[in-house]
């Protein structure tokens, strides 16, 4: 396994000056808090920043030098959000542009160019996580063809990079590739597995009520790789009819991000596109899981819980190949007040917790 990273999409900066400011305000203090010589960052660059860096070798060299000077390294980029990820309302906007839009391909290739210049000399490869084609509606056979064509173009661009860069498609509830099964079915036979694989977000995996070991086995059986793992956990609600549980859960119903909710009952999985809809539409006959990335180390108090067990099971099921591991709790600023922590201390605590999960037993 490669060293852990934490994803910087938790920070709102969307210009290069702001990205550099994050290094001193958060990343360096986190590294110092951990007492680590090096700290991995899963860097998020908004599309305008990625474009500017891709066009300017001197600025890429400068960013690499700024990282090195602070004991920071980058082996993975998060190219799922295109921009505006900390707008007051994001919701379904995060899935645009879709993989039918050339802007998505250009952004991804810009990220590849940037990452090639940031990779440590001893890194075997770099990874870029991306969205699962788009939100499920609308989607036509023509859209399928367009997405295939653009992914082929991006794959050709990845082959041309100076360093090995791999694209990691991230299934997410509500999207075209809603589950790992959907992603494997779509990708297998369409993509070059040397350059395109999966990003396994363990919050998304839990929300879908998938079997972690079965999901990993399905990926590998299809000849695909888990290129990247986003270590994350979802909210778990054992009894959604419990008034105390509903009251506690209501505090997580916030306006910025989409919180897809699933209910498991009698072997079926019922679906709601957001937490507010779940309160209105799901009967509560079985447990709920909610797409709200809660801190790995801080399980909510009963009657709520989290899906840390799914994270552990997924990690245990991974093959020995070196997947990139990224802690991705981007929701710190929208957590209910009672669940918030100092961001530097919280990120450091998450990384320490995550390191314990992946340490050799």
UniProtKB/TrEMBL annotation:
Record Gene3D superfamilies: Divalent-metal-dependent TIM barrel enzymes
InterPro entries linked to this entry: AP_endonuc_F2_Zn_BS, IolE/XylAMocC-like, Xyl_isomerase-like_sf, Xyl_isomerase-like_TIM-brl
UniProt keyword terms in alphabetical order: Isomerase
Gene Ontology terms, MF aspect: isomerase activity; zinc ion binding
Residue ranges of domain Xylose isomerase-like TIM barrel in the record: 48-211
Keyword Membrane: no
Statement: the UniProt record of this protein carries the keyword Isomerase: yes
Name under which the protein is recorded: Xylose isomerase domain-containing protein TIM barrel
Species annotation: Amycolatopsis methanolica 239
Lineage summary: Bacteria, Bacillati, Actinomycetota, Actinomycetes, Pseudonocardiales
